[in-house]
Amino acid sequence: MDEREQSRMPPEPQAPPPQGPQGPEIPPVREPSTPPPRDPDVPPVREPEIPPVREPETPPPRDPEPPPSPRGGSSIEPPELPIDVPRSALTSQSRRAFLLFAAGTIAAAAGAWWLIPDATKRRLAPGGGNDRLDTLAARIGLSRANRERVLNGALTFDDDVAEALYSTDRRVRTYDRSQVTLLRNNYNGQTPGAAYLSTWALTLTGLASGATERLTIDDLVRRFPHREQVTRLVCVEGWSAVAWWGGLRFADLLAAFPPAAGARWASLRSSVNLDPRGNPDPYYVSIDLGTARHPQTLLATHKDGRPLPRAHGAPLRLLAPMKLGLKNIKAITDIAYTAEEPADYWNEQGYSKYDGL
Asked: Please, what is the average pLDDT of the chain?
């Protein structure tokens, strides 16, 4: 049989592989030694590259903080470097500092002496020392007239600010009668005796009519509606008290006896006031007519439902609870309406004219 006939004959069947006791033995798969030929039409498949695992490295040692930059950028101050200074320069600087300190001390002492009240000056420098110091101060412009101008300017500025912030519609708090507290006698001197009560009358001047009116306490009580309120009286000394007041509204008196055209102020005066030794010491305050017309401003005739006692200003006193107690003048004898702001007892001694709460 030639080679062509052998290639056409079917292959002879091979004998089955030998079987062991557990089944047929599977021959091991051997990797081909030569890779199969690659199809040129199919792109090659690339397996992902797995980076090698590196052992963790030890961090390098940390460098020390860099020195501060001379242009800033570091909060660490540069080291101080000693500087050689001549002794003469240090002596000159010390002498100059001492002279400036001495001049500042003298200027502060002179300013303080210039501003303190005259009564305090007389107590600190009795005899002729006070006059000599005042004369020396006047030579450099620290005269009494300039002092009053400076102090009045400071007080006026404070009053202007307070008045600008004040609301005429604002009312102070009212209380129940059960909340009334003890009201001390706060006369600045002795309480006036009872002798003046029998002849007392309220004098009104500066009216639109040009006349002078005199009203007795009976005229005021009978003619005007009686109003009551329980408000707090606040003293400049630091204490306060809640009191039950009764009387007529100041606004009602202004409506019945209107002031002259251009009037902006009311000057209230007590001619029966006494000083601490019992000598006559007229007391006077000024209030603007806006405060006088406030609905809580009373000309009080009663306290605790009874006529005012002398200790609290019988027979008539001002009750303006939006003002400090020193404005609430007792035992009023005169009311004058003016276009210019009138004098005020405590303002002349260094207190504010406004005295609002």
From this structure: 82
Average pLDDT estimate for 135-164: 69
Query: What are the angstrom distances between the C-alpha of 330 and each of 91, 192, 314, 317, 351?
Result: 66, 10, 7, 4, 19
Q: The whole model's pTM is what?
A: 0.61
First to last CA, the chain: 142
Report how far Cα 241 is from the mean position of its chain's Cα atoms: 25
Relative orientation angle of helices 87-115 and 129-139, to the nearest 10 degrees:
110
The closest of 207, 199, 159 to 344, measured between CA atoms, is 159
- CATH at 249: 3.90.420.10
With tokens 């020396």, the residue in question is: 136
Run of H or E including 103: helix 87-115
Q: Cβ contacts of residue 163 below 8 Å, gap of 6+?
A: 288, 354, 356
Q: What angle do CA 294, 296, 301 make, to 5 degrees?
A: 115
Scan for tokens 């797995």, then name that residue: 50
The sign of the CA dihedral 110, 115, 117, 120 is negative
Residues 6 or more apart whose Cβ sits within 8 Å of residue 314 = 197, 307, 308, 331
Q: In total, how many domains does the chain have?
A: 1
Percent of the chain with pLDDT over 70: 67
**Residue 91: pLDDT above 90?**
no
* Spatial distance between the Cα atoms of 200 and 18, rounded to a whole number of angstroms: 152
What's the rounded Cα separation, in Å, for the pair 247 and 221? Answer: 8
Domain that holds residue 266: 177-349
Neighbouring CB atoms inside 10 A of 23's CB total: 7
DSSP string for 290-306: HHHTSTT-EEEEEETTE
Report the distance separating Cα 168 and Cα 292, nearest Å.
11
Least Cα distance to 300 among 322, 273, 321, 282 occurs for 321
Task: With respect to residue 248, please indicate whether it lies within any of the assigned structural domains.
Answer: yes
